[in-house]
UniProtKB/TrEMBL annotation:
GO terms for biological process: recombinational repair. One of its GO terms (molecular function) is ATP binding. Pfam families: Viral_helicase1 (PF01443). This is ATP-dependent DNA helicase. One of its GO terms (cellular component) is cytosol. It comes from Streptomyces rubellomurinus (strain ATCC 31215). Coiled coil: none annotated.
Length: 654
């Protein structure tokens, strides 16, 4: 395609577009190649369908060669049970390496006895769950469970919420839902699908799933990336929590209103004249400008034009008054009617249309002049200064008086937590403030999406919710998370509180209750902790059992050595498995320097959400709990990352 000569710029452009389209199609087909066909359903009537990541058709056959897993025809593959066989006799799972079949596993659904043709054995789910972790999440398209599939395939186009404990497959559901939306809702697909995750580490972890489902057009982003802001510093979490509250949005909007033609009369110098505008006239121009377009800077342009109209009107009025005064004075002194000497009289004599009064100005010319006038420029800048988003945020955070005026609900100590210097670097908590300011100053974001998926959604602050909802005008979203795993900055306690301001009660809540990651033993060991941090939450159950979690103690100066000992023992006993060490954020550097990173991924507790490993070492639970507010929830996250074995290293009492 790219070798073909292009005669013109237009042709070159079309060639690029066509090449891009083909590139995408190649990507889709390559993605589908991995486990090309993973399922087959045999109906009781003898017909069969093969299920794969995409649909494939041949010209001769009536039935498709391969049915896309998202097609309605594939539904029984996920939903049929012996109680509701949905017309199926057999469900078959196929394991492929390249194009070679390496495993077959059948379930018989209609109560008939297995024949020689059927391979009934260990379920493919158990196999998938006990497989080694690779450090990247894998698609679960072959083994989606009925409760997961129901959410993925839901016809509900509004807001779907999935609440579930650690490892219940929320991320799996969220990503397969994104793929389903692209397939089943063409409008949303055309407007784009966005997946938001808490940090770059997490996005990297899930980055393979959608491409392996043949979908390369989904945008994966963190809040930073959406706002286009890279923070230069880490802020304290108590200030971050405050900055996450929706009061800040009101404060920024309030601060902006003060910068849009504050009340009062106004005088503009135009050339040598002073033109006076009443407070009413200015307010009228302001209200009309604000109503005309969203965004301070775009509305400023409208305001400028309306102000010029008002100035031109005032000039005409003043001019009229002056001329009438002159007319009256002259008439009184000379007894002459001056009208006769003006162009009005002559034009009338020449048969022109009835003109206005003699002193009428050419208003269009006056307006054009005024739009170029320095005096008008200065007036607009004084009444309605052009702004950058960052300036607006600074004007609030670096000014104690502005904080006091616009955040009256905060206490004085809270406000002093927010107060910063004019040159402080931005922090993570400033990102949604800058985004809010950008929407206030420049108008709504340029890029919006037809469907937005948010993973670890319990992490979002009210201000972050605002920035995400802004990008989804249709309010079509899939939100997955677990409030028992909420970090220290989260502002809401539950889904109702988080979503109320945006969709009220209009969201559909699903709950997942089976853990596909952690073993029953690990879940038992965190039960008391869960009861403390989320007393209302039903504990999840696991499909699998394994080793009991262990604890080892070490002296304060022997922690790194103890972690290394444990990792060596685990990798000797279970070579090839993926290991992770979760520790307080401040410890990560020491562990990496001590050589731990050669044996395992070192994960600061604040970044552990959503990740998983075969074996996990949790270093110094007390330190993790003490490191941040709500530290017990960080510990709960840390303790639920292992699929097979968990070891906790605690510090020996002195
Ligand atoms: N139907 C399934 N088939 C195969 N594997 C699955 C299935 N559902 C979940 N899993 C696996 O279980 C593990 C946990 O799933 P996932 O990460 O989606 O859970 P989560 O609810 O998002 O967890 P967390 O609350 O810790 O973020 C993953 O390895 C995932 O691949």
């Amino acid at each position: 395609m790219l070798k073909a000569p292009a005669e013109s710029a237009g042709e070159a452009y079309e060639r690029e577009i066509a090449a891009e389209r083909l590139g995408r199609e190649i990507g889709r087909l390559e993605g589908a190649e991995k486990g090309l066909v993973f399922g087959r359903i045999d109906r009781a009537d003898g017909s069969a369908l093969r299920i794969g990541r995409i649909g494939l058709y041949s010209e001769e056959d009536e039935l498709p060669l391969l049915v896309d897993w998202r097609a309605n025809a594939a539904r029984p593959f996920y939903e049929a049970t012996p109680v509701h066989p949905m017309g199926l006799r057999r469900r078959r799972h196929l394991g492929l390496e390249g194009r070679t079949v390496v495993s077959v596993s059948d379930e018989l659904l209609d109560g008939t006895a297995p024949t020689e043709e059927d391979v009934v054995g260990d379920g493919p789910l158990v196999e998938a769950l006990s497989a080694r972790r690779t450090g990247r999440m894998q698609a679960a398209v072959a083994t989606l469970q009925a409760e997961q599939d129901e959410i993925v395939r839901s016809a509900h186009r509004g807001v779907t919420v999935v609440q579930g404990g650690p490892g219940t497959g929320k991320t799996v559901v969220a990503l397969h839902r994104a793929a389903y939306v692209l397939y089943a809702f063409p409008r949303a697909a055309e407007e784009g699908v966005l997946v938001v995750g808490p940090n770059a580490r997490f996005l990297d972890y899930i980055s393979q799933v959608l491409p392996s489902l043949g979908e390369n057009d989904v945008v994966l982003a963190t809040c930073r990336e959406l706002a286009g802001v890279t923070p230069g510093a880490v802020g304290p979490s108590d200030a971050a929590r405050l900055k996450g509250g929706s009061d800040l949005a009101e404060a920024l909007a309030g601060l902006l209103r003060v910068r849009q033609a504050p009340a009062g009369d106004f005088t503009v110098r135009v050339g040598r004249d002073l033109v006076h505008l009443s407070g009413e006239e200015v307010a009228e121009a302001r209200d009309a400008a604000v109503a005309a377009v969203p965004g301070h800077n775009p509305a400023r342009q409208v305001f400028r034009e309306l102000l010029v109209d008002a100035v031109a009107d005032a000039l005409q009025r003043d001019m009229g008054d002056v001329l009438e005064q002159i007319d009256a004075d002259a008439e009184r002194m000379t007894g002459l009617d001056l009208d006769r000497f003006t162009g009005a009289d002559r034009r009338r004599a020449e048969g022109a249309a009835e003109p206005g009064p003699a002193h009428e100005l050419d208003l269009d010319a006056v307006r054009a002049d005024l739009l170029e006038d320095d005096g008008v420029d200065r007036a607009v800048e004084a009444l309605w200064p052009r702004l950058e988003p960052g300036e607006l945020v600074r004007a609030l955070l670096a000014d104690a008086d502005a904080l006091a005026e616009h955040l009256p609900r905060l206490t004085a100590p809270e406000r002093s937590l927010l107060l910063g210097g004019p040159d402080d670097p931005w922090t993570e908590a400033d990102v949604p403030l800058l985004d809010e300011a950008a929407s206030l100053v420049d108008g709504p974001p340029g890029r919006t999406y037809g469907h937005v998926v948010v993973d670890e959604a319990q992490e979002l602050t009210a201000m972050q919710w605002r920035m995400i909802v802004r990008r989804c005008p249709a309010r079509a979203m899939t939100l997955v998370g677990d409030f028992a795993q909420a970090g220290p900055v989260t502002t809401a306690r539950d889904w109702k509180e988080a979503l109320g301001p945006h969709v009220g009660p209009r969201f559909k809540l699903h709950e997942l209750t089976v853990s596909y990651r952690t073993t029953q033993e690990i879940l038992e060991s965190v039960r008391a902790l869960l009861a403390r941090i989320a007393p209302d939450q039903r504990p999840t159950r696991s499909l699998r059992s394994g080793e009991s979690p262990r604890t080892v103690t070490a002296p304060p100066d022997g922690l790194v050595a103890a972690v290394l000992r444990e990792l060596r023992a685990q990798s000797a006993a279970h070579p090839g498995e993926l290991l992770g060490v979760v520790c307080a954020d401040s410890r990560a550097g020491e562990l990496t320097a001590g050589g731990v990173a050669r044996h395992a991924r070192v994960v600061p507790a604040s970044e552990a959400r959503g990740l998983e490993f075969d074996g996990v070492v949790v270093l110094d639970p007390e330190e993790i709990v003490a490191a941040r507010p709500g530290g017990e929830r960080d510990l709960y996250v840390a303790l639920t990352r292992a699929t097979k074995r968990l070891c906790t290293v605690t510090v020996e009492p002195a």
